[in-house]
Amino acid sequence: MKSRCKITFFLVLILSFSCSNSGKKPDAYGLFEADEIIVSAEGNGKIIDLDLEEGQSLVAGQHIGLIDTLQLYLQKQQLNAQIEGTSVQMADIPKQVRALQEKLTGMMNEKKRLQSLIQSKAATNKQMDDLNTEIQVTRSQLDATRSNLSVQNESVLSQIDAMRYQVMALEDAIQKSLITSPIKGVVLKKYINKFEFISTGRPIFKIADVSKMTLKVYVTEDQLSDLKLGDTCKVRIDKKKGKLKTYQGCITWISDESEFTPKMIQTKNERVNLVYAVKISVKNDGGIKVGMPGDVVFN
Asked: Is 135 in the same domain as 182?
């Protein structure tokens, strides 16, 4: 946009905005710009749907096309099947240790009975010692089994989590295969057509919000002292039969660095003059186009 501004700016001066009905003499000339966005592909594949034309008005989030997602969908289904198959490897810990738990419960009941027998001299202390040893062994087996099954389940869960993240990545890729408009605006340029193959990063279209346009002009140092951000001004464009159409403008940016006058807009002797770039925001009623020349009268 900057290079185009400098290359074609001389046309503005050549035209000079016929002043037969212009009123006050312009203080500066410039070209209208808009905030342009180049929308690029976020996926790879053939474009199977694309409802897009230059000059078309779009709203933010509007779906205008689709990149083929069949392979992504099949990969997602495959991963879901693997998740289901891996899930059956999860151990049912309560069920797995139930036999050892029942055995331990039986031995604890036997211990109570044996304690009563020892008190009545019907059993020996050795029998109690043997039972306590067996109880300890069973408890160790129970703890070890629970620990091993827990480790096994953690390993299975880790595998499932990894596959679920892969599914999420595929879902994100599928979502990014939808071609949407990031803003409300007008399509300025279309770079690709339906059924063409596209890769990540390749431009699809250029869009700009033309509801507000920016007129970029250059002013001299003596003009700069009278300008400040937020100042209002009159912005004018050519109409038929030498008439001018006037808009209300607002200064939104003033360069804090001077630059040499662009070579294409002044005579050789005037090229050494230092100027400052100024941007003026204008609400567009549809009459202003990107690249159109305009002039400004500062209040």
From this structure: no
Helix (H), strand (E) at residue 178: strand 178-180
Question: Which residue range is the domain that position 48 belongs to?
Answer: 40-65+177-205
Is the CB of residue 28 less than 8 Å from the CB of residue 288? no
Main-chain phi, psi angles of 227, to 5 degrees: -110, 145
| Each residue's pLDDT tens digit, 142-157 | 888 888 888 898 999 9
Whether residue 49 contacts residue 272, with contact meaning beta carbons closer than 8 Å, is answered with no
Please name which of 177, 184, 230 lies closest in space to residue 207, comparing C-alpha atoms.
184
First to last CA, the chain: 28
Report the C-alpha gap between 66 and 156 in whole angstroms.
36
Indicate the number of domains in the chain. Answer: 3
Task: State both tokens at 43.
Answer: 């996926």
DSSP 8-state code for residue 120 = T
Report residues of the chain scoring pLDDT below 70. 1-23, 261-272
